[in-house]
What does this fold into?
Amino acid sequence: MIKEDFCIIKQKDPAINKSIELFFNYPGLIALVHYRIAHRIHKAGFKVIARILMGLTGFITNVDIHPAAHIGRRVFIDHATGVVIGETAEVGNDVMIYQGVTLGGTSLNKVKRHPTIEDGVVIGAGAKILGNIRVGANAKIGANSVVIKDVPPECTAVGIPARVIVKGRAQGANALNKLPDIDRVLFEYLFKRLQILETNAECAHSKELEELNELYANFLESLKR
It folds into this structure.
């Protein structure tokens, strides 16, 4: 598994030139390797030692991973600064996590209180996924989104709180720059509607206004998801 952790970076990061960079420029890799070791130690019953190891790792890498979390194969934590993965979090295979992501809990009880991330998910920088929720396979979470509800597979979620606004994946596994901006859509609607009304008050039943009304209805529908 550790060998796969090293190899996946060479496949997904075009910035790498030499293998030696893996040891000095990829804190997410170092944290993940230490987690693999600490997780085995934790499962063997030496929980305090596992926690100490990950505490030292957090001090070195600025990545906080609880040794009891379950992290699958070929996970790439890019840049990694500020990433937090809680005790009962579950991360599937081939997941990509950017800096500042939190897989956090919302309960103080000793229960499953952290999210489950299925295979192939891409989580944008600064996103917060909170509580015992599930993010379906191949979903995308936009940067700085706050996810507090389940996200279906093959969907895109953005916003605060995050809403599913695109059914089906964006083209390209890392196409986070193509995620829709729901605030921009609303501002465009308001601006165009005001422009029409100011230009000609008699266009209240025009084709352009009907199209805008449909756009606004779709926006309101996305808020319910």
